[in-house]
């Protein structure tokens, strides 16, 4: 299938996230985010705030022990789990089994933002994918290394996992030259989807989304200001929040890409172009979603 569909409000309305099931927090979905290390604690905050702003009802954050109390204070809405950590300040893979059990009790899981790039992150990711049961999955940043190690890891899931690489990460994932990825990002996204059975969000100036059945979409109207530290963490948080609300994987990806891009456009108008920060993106999201859905 060679057709690429532009991401428009009309397309989004045809695959709108379901309305909350009842009036409780559980009816808006339960999210688990496994992320961060002592060197990159902010990634946890960015993903967490995005998941809440997109409407998720309950949020759990699993972080290394040294981050648990400060993260809990910074995100008082979340239950925070402190985990054994490595000497380098990452999440130790000895926690993998306990995390997998926790993942089986939520609706959607995000793993990877801000995590150390090492064998511990790979082990935690593999355990989460294998133990998540019915939970929808998002693999971002360091978690993508687990797919390099075990290419069929995500192929047996009930619903396809979502991966969110930028060009550098995609080059490592496919073991290809970065220049080749940047020359044809859509083709790279198709190769990743075929290899891993995922919904692939190929981030860049033009963001491509490819589903396992071959459908492909392109969002072209973001803003260069989104090319800033932490922007990808907010996107991953949006995706997992919408998955928890019950959106299908391709719908969660498309709505998140659109909302993220539109937030960048609005912030650019407010601040005069580049210079806005990733932490400001989540605050724009509720109004964007409401406007598209009405």
Word description of this protein:
With 294 residues, the protein is α/β, with parallel strands linked by helices. The chain has one domain: UDP-N-acetylmuramoyl-L-alanine:D-glutamate ligase (3-Layer(aba) Sandwich), CATH 3.40.1190.20. It has twelve helices and ten strands. It has helices at residues 9-13, 42-53, 65-74, 96-103, 119-131, 145-149, 167-174, 178-183, 185-196, 231-244, 249-271, 285-293, and strands at 4-6, 30-34, 58-64, 79-83, 108-111, 136-139, 162-163, 199-202, 207-210, 216-219. Strands 1-10-9-8-7-6-5-2-3-4 form a ten-stranded mixed beta sheet, sandwiched between helices. A hairpin with a 5-residue loop joins strand 9 and strand 10. The protein is globular. The two termini are 32 Å apart. The model has no long low-confidence stretch (mean pLDDT 95).
SSE layout:
Blueprint: E1 4-6, H1 9-13, E2 30-34, H2 42-53, E3 58-64, H3 65-74, E4 79-83, H4 96-103, E5 108-111, H5 119-131, E6 136-139, H6 145-149, E7 162-163, H7 167-174, H8 178-183, H9 185-196, E8 199-202, E9 207-210, E10 216-219, H10 231-244, H11 249-271, H12 285-293
Helix pairs in contact: 2-10, 4-5, 7-9, 10-11
Helix segment count?
A: 12
Query: What strand order characterises the main sheet?
Result: 1-10-9-8-7-6-5-2-3-4
Q: Number of folding domains?
A: 1
Alpha-beta classification: alpha/beta
Strand fraction equals 5-15%
Q: What Rg is obtained from the alpha carbons, in whole angstroms? A: 17 Å
Q: Indicate the CATH architecture.
A: 3-Layer(aba) Sandwich
- The top-level CATH class is Alpha Beta
- Name the CATH superfamily assignment: Ribokinase
**What's the N-to-C terminus distance?**
32 Å
Mean pLDDT: 95
Biggest β-sheet: count, sense, barrel? 10 strands, mixed
Helical coverage, percent range:
40-55%
């Amino acid at each position: 299938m060679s057709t690429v569909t532009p991401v428009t409000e009309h397309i989004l309305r045809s695959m709108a996230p379901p309305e909350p099931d009842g009036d409780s927090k559980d009816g808006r979905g339960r999210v688990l985010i496994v992320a961060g290390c002592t060197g990159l604690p902010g990634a946890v905050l960015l993903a967490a705030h995005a998941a809440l702003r997109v409407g998720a009802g309950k949020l759990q954050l699993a972080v290394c022990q040294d981050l648990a109390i400060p993260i809990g204070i910074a995100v008082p809405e979340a239950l925070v789990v402190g985990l054994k950590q490595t000497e380098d300040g990452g999440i130790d893979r000895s926690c993998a089994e306990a995390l997998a059990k926790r993942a089986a009790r939520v609706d959607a899981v995000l793993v990877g933002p801000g995590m150390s790039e090492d064998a511990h992150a790979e082990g935690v990711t593999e355990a989460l994918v294998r133990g998540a049961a019915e939970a929808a999955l998002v693999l971002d940043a360091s978690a993508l290394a687990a797919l390099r190690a075990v290419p069929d890891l995500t192929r047996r899931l009930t619903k396809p996992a979502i991966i969110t690489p930028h060009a550098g990460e995609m080059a490592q994932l496919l073991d290809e030259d970065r220049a080749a990825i940047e020359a044809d990002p859509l083709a790279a996204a198709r190769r990743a989807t075929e290899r891993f059975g995922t919904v692939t969000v190929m981030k860049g100036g033009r963001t491509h989304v490819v589903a396992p059945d071959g459908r492909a979409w392109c969002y072209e109207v973001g803003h260069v200001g989104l090319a800033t530290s932490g922007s990808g963490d907010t996107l991953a948080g949006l995706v997992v929040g919408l998955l928890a609300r019950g959106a299908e994987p391709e719908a969660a990806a498309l709505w998140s890409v659109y909302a993220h891009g539109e937030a960048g456009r609005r912030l650019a108008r407010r601040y005069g172009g580049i210079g806005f920060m990733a932490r400001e993106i989540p605050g724009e999201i509720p109004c964007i979603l409401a406007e598209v859905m009405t």
